[in-house]
Prior knowledge:
- The protein is of the alpha+beta class.
- The protein has two domains: 56 residues; 138 residues, VirB8 protein (Nuclear Transport Factor 2, Chain: A).
- The chain contains five helices and six strands, in the order H-E-E-H-H-H-H-E-E-E-E.
- It has a four-stranded antiparallel beta sheet, covered by helices on one side.
- Strand 4 and strand 5 form a beta hairpin.
- The radius of gyration is 32 Å and the shape is rod-shaped.
- It starts with a helix and ends with a strand.
Amino acid sequence: MLIEKLENKIKLALTVSVGSFLTSIVIIGFALFFTFKLIINERKHVYVLDAGVPILVQRTNVEENAEVEAKSHVSLFHSLFFTLPPDDEYINENMRKAMYLIDESGLKQYNNLKEQGYYRSILANSMLCNIKTDSVLLDISNEATQFTFYGTQRIERATSILKRKVVTTGFLRSVNRSDNNPHGLIITNWKTLLNEDIDITPKKIF
């Protein structure tokens, strides 16, 4: 009887020990899981100092912002390239900034327009050109992201206001971010698909 009681006690002690061990592993597993999840969530927050006071701001993933940044990059380039006041220094500065956002295809189009006397015409006729982004469509089904830009260009002359529909296309490639290229993207193989007049409004001359 004594031996049987000892065996039962040993079995009970073993069962309790194994059960406690397994329970500890489960508790530790849950603790590690929630700790890891907490760390991941905390890394999505950034504290910014405002006059010495830490302010919590939310940081989003790069993937979540990729589409927004791509569209912003395309819009920024077109704004720089097509915003042309009758000011030679302003035009040159805009072209300098725009060339940081595109490959040699942009420089090629700029040189073509320059050879055709387009910029001289703007200066001579005191034309004011700007462009409004209507939409930017992205196709990310391939390795390289392709975009199609739709915009309306406004050309103001002394006697009239001309509006043109502008449609261009190209690809986007990732590069290192810099002060001159804050989105870390560069436009490649840029082409103009459409550039046609859609409306002309004569100015009233008093």
